[in-house]
Amino acid sequence: MSNNQLYDQLNALSRRFPDALRLEQAGSSNEGRPIWLARLGNSDKPAVMIITQQHGNEPHGTEAAVNLIKRLASSGALSRQVLDNLQVLIVPRVNPDGAERFSRGNMDFSAPQTSADCLRADGPLNPAKLDQHLGANVTAFTNADGQRQFSYDINRYHWTDWSKSTQIRCNPGLASERHFNPGQNPVPEAVAVRGIYDRYRPIWLVDVHNQNPAVVLEDVDPEVNRPGRQVTGSITWPTHPDVAPEAVALSKQLAIVMKQRSTQLGFMEITNYYYEHPNGDVRRGGGDPGIARNAYGLLGTERLAAGETGPLGGSVLMEIGGLNSRGQKSAGMLRNNVREMLEAVLVATADGSLTVIDPAEADRLPPPGQESDKPLNNPHE
């Protein structure tokens, strides 16, 4: 859906369910478009948070989020079960500028381009590599004239402390420039998400994306996934080494609930998005502390260290298949996959069953499998 269609649907829902749904503008995008927060439930209850479409060309999470908001705002059984016990925070589109052009980045074409890391393996700065505009994570966009431009990848800019980010530490001589100001993260969309987190202090956060097509590996446990079938989605938890074990455990419990729901539905194949290649090469984002799944696990870790009681610090990346497949049947199935898994974790959190799950079960999830150009058209394939 377009930005205007999204805004119209959110406003219509807020008018239809004024007692259940409150819309707040959490911030503005790089180009000035509103970033909306849908807030549902009792503000005195523990908060949980869902964000979607950090990447503008990954739309299925937004479609699912609007459906979920509608179901929660109505007075049905799901609404009562969840909202009597939780406050649910949903940002249905973090990146309206990228969505406008169906592009991954936030359309800030002044973003500095990436280069090699300026930090030594043991952490200190390497003086030979300072002041090289390092550390920015950008994504390419081809304009109407065929020129490649680069803008910020929002999902690399959720640093717990921006002044300690690689982008700042690698460029100490450029502090007066907007992109290297230690006092202000230059990605307003990430700032908006962080502002919601700091204001409402959710116990967990789920970040929804789309992934490329993939096929389940042939040597997996058939009780966990069916070999050779299309991967419909992948999930993972914080992989930064400083995330507290309690936060990782809660994240894995969330992942297990999602996986269990997918198994109940029968036509979904959910894998682990993160894996380490036998040659030692870590794929799929690794431990980058600016990635949302790591950053909000680290923020939860800070809260635990400050004496806040858990459960808290849960952070899950949900990647749904279909990045290159936008057929009606496929999109509808994928959207419903997202909603079903999100509803499952909301119910499990609300009724307390989430925290009795053995987190070690998450380690049975296989890696994401062999990437494939095969389109996902049949909802039951």
Short account of what is shown:
By secondary structure, this protein is an alpha/beta fold.
How would you sum up this structure, described in words?
It is globular and about 55 Å long. Helix 1 packs parallel to helix 2 (60-73), helix 2 (60-73) packs across helix 9 and helix 7 (245-265) crosses helix 8. An 8-stranded mixed β-sheet has the order 1-2-4-3-7-13-9-10. 31% of the residues lie in helices and 17% in strands. The protein has 9 helices and 14 strands. The longest helix has 24 residues, at 328-351. With 381 residues, the protein is α/β, with parallel strands linked by helices. It has helices at 3-16, 60-73, 77-83, 96-101, 166-169, 188-200, 245-265, 292-305, 328-351, and strands at residues 21-28, 34-41, 47-52, 87-91, 138-142, 148-152, 204-210, 214-215, 233-236, 270-272, 275-276, 282-283, 314-320, 370-371. Mean pLDDT is 87; it is low at 375-381.
Annotation keywords:
9 helices; two-stranded antiparallel ribbon; 14 strands; 31% helix; alpha/beta; disordered C terminus; 381 residues; single chain; 17% strand; eight-stranded mixed sheet
